[in-house]
Amino acid sequence: MPLEQTEVDKRLEGIHERILSVIETKDIEKILDLFHPHAVVVHRESGVIYGHEDLRQFYQACLKVGPPIYKVIPIKNLATPDGEYLIQEGFLEFNINDEKKRCEFTGIFKRDEQGIYKYYRNEVDVKNMH
């Protein structure tokens, strides 16, 4: 039976709460555990990060500046009929040099064997951040 929209919204909100709480710890291993082993992060116009080793390098660099804390402004929250995948489109809002910046994003989360959703694909348009 397909998930109700309120359940999809609730699950995605919980996923982002979990992600932010883990990122604030600055623990690379815990951060990597948020991602499926075959996760892909696409920064439009600037490259692709694939798998845990590339993600490790990316987050080590990010954490030198500070944890990448964000706010989600969802436009569309979807789920596959079986609930195995959750898809979210919208904006990520960051505070950069005391200025709010937004970029478009699409996040796909895949449920693992324990029922925990992990980032499977994350696509962001950082080049057109405004």
From TrEMBL:
Entry-linked InterPro entries: NTF2-like_dom_sf, SnoaL-like
Pfam families listed in its UniProt record: SnoaL_2
Limits of the SnoaL-like domain: 17-110
Protein name: SnoaL-like domain-containing protein
Organism name: Acrobeloides nanus
